[in-house]
Design goal:
Length: 457
């Protein structure tokens, strides 16, 4: 029996463990307790207290305690919102400011920008990190506890880095808690290594910014690698507790299939290659920003339609005009919005017709005797929202909410597929316009050689 378990362990890698564990959503993370120093201009004073990472109202570290070596007069001169530097054991931890203080010497504050415990100047071998609020994937088989395997791993690799992302054991339990309570919950643990040499702190910020942006596109909501631990050999060198931006939990649709990770690694390699060019990086960050904002319905339906249109305009200019050079000069600016979308769809090998699953949008066209295609109805609804004339306001008020909702889903699908085309993805995606939820709505992207199978089926 013992020999069988040993053979089992040799076959499968063991699951990565988070350096900081969360057992319930939104629980505070204790960073440090004891004496730390606040410095302001030429003065400094010590605080006996604690530093915690708190999720609300903003996700970032906060400190609280009592001053131990400052006169009452000097203490009372400190202004709320005054910028200070916080040191732990004579090492710079981060910039901060006071949020409240009382006459009995109690003080509270928050940290901003880069917040690192330890010596951030040391180059490390690997970085361990956590990912909150990331959707479920069924990945590669790994050993999740002795004698038990699970499809918990996703691997990513580019020219310089290797990244492993492991879904936590008992993911469903943690995810159910998150769905019930909302907020934030660590659901994945990760590890990044460099193929040659070590990783500096500044380099870690750059690669994990890229990776977090990529994961946000997969997730349909912003997520980020947080609680980053720099390791040299087996020693912990520094911990980055900065408040990297993560969206609170909200149930949304996103394009990846649930039961396959095929093509994700290859897509990451293309993403990283684009990211290394400054202009292309700006395109990726901006287009994904508008995508997740629209997908999260942050502007409600009308505002999200406008955000989707902005994303489509950006993709048109970068992909059709700048990269493909299909239209040059002033013609590229004067073309109507619907024609821009049609040009984009031609590159995606997509029909201009309203997808069969958008029943209310199709009915709206029939009822109003509108003989127009999908790009045109999307743009007309968008124009009715944007223009403030009385007739346009009356027009938008008469459009049923579900018609506007389906128009939004149509536009978001266009954005998803355009970005997938740019990232050279060839696999399946969840078609939000199919009228079918979960795995039943998963089909190959239109330009895939396998797409014909979906059409025949």
């Amino acid at each position: 029996m013992k020999k069988a378990i040993e053979n089992f362990s040799e076959k499968y890698s063991f699951i990565k463990q988070c350096m900081l564990q969360m057992e319930t959503p939104n629980e505070d993370i204790l960073i440090y307790t004891g004496i730390f120093t606040l410095k302001c201009n030429k003065s400094e004073f010590e605080i006996m207290g604690k530093i915690c990472f708190e999720w609300f109202p903003n996700s970032r570290p906060k400190f609280s305690g009592e001053v131990v070596n400052i006169t009452f007069e000097s203490f009372m001169k400190l202004g709320v919102d005054e910028k200070l530097c916080l040191f732990i054991n004579n090492l710079f931890f981060g910039n901060c400011f006071i949020t409240s203080k009382s006459s009995d010497g109690k003080i509270e504050g928050v940290l901003s920008s880069d917040v690192v415990k330890g010596d951030r100047t040391i180059v490390v071998d690997k970085i361990c990190f956590s990912i909150p609020n990331f959707r479920e994937f069924l990945g590669e088989l790994i050993e999740i506890k002795e004698g038990t395997i699970g499809r918990n791993r996703i691997g990513f690799e580019d020219k310089s880095f290797q990244i492993v992302l492991d879904k936590r054991h008992k993911f469903s339990d943690y995810n159910n808690q998150l769905m019930s309570k909302g907020g934030y919950m660590v659901l994945y643990c990760g590890e990044i290594t460099k193929k040659s040499g070590g990783i500096s702190y500044e380099e870690s910020k750059e690669i994990l910014y890229a990776f977090s942006t990529f994961l946000s596109f997969l997730n349909g909501r912003r997520c980020s690698a947080i609680f980053r631990h720099g390791m040299f050999e087996t020693e912990l060198v520094w911990c980055d507790y900065s408040g990297y931006f993560i969206d609170e939990y909200k149930s949304v649709s996103s394009w990846p299939p649930k039961f396959s990770i095929e093509g994700l690694n290859e897509m990451w390699a293309v993403f990283k290659e684009l990211w290394d060019n400054e202009n292309d990086r700006d395109f990726l960050t901006t287009s994904i920003h508008w995508y997740v904002e629209a997908n999260g319905n942050s502007g409600f339906i009308e505002g999200s339609i406008l955000m989707t249109q902005i994303a489509l305009e950006l993709i048109y200019n970068w992909f059709i005009v700048e990269q493909k050079k299909l239209i040059l000069g002033k013609d590229s600016e004067n073309i109507q919005a619907a024609n821009k979308i049609r040009l984009l769809l031609s590159q995606l090998e997509m029909s201009n017709e309203v997808p069969i699953g958008l029943n209310r949008l199709k009915k709206y066209l029939i009822d109003n005797k509108l003989k127009i295609d999908a790009p045109e109805i999307f743009v007309q609804i968008r124009n009715a929202i944007v223009h403030s004339q009385s007739e346009q306001r009356k027009k938008i008020s008469k459009i049923p909410d579900m018609v506007k909702y389906e128009s939004l889903q149509l536009g978001i699908m266009y954005v998803e597929l355009a970005l997938l085309k740019i990232l050279r993805y060839e696999g399946k995606f969840h078609d939000r316009c199919s009228g079918v939820f979960h795995s039943g709505g998963e089909v190959f992207v239109p330009w895939s050689k396998n797409s014909i199978v979906d059409k025949i089926a």
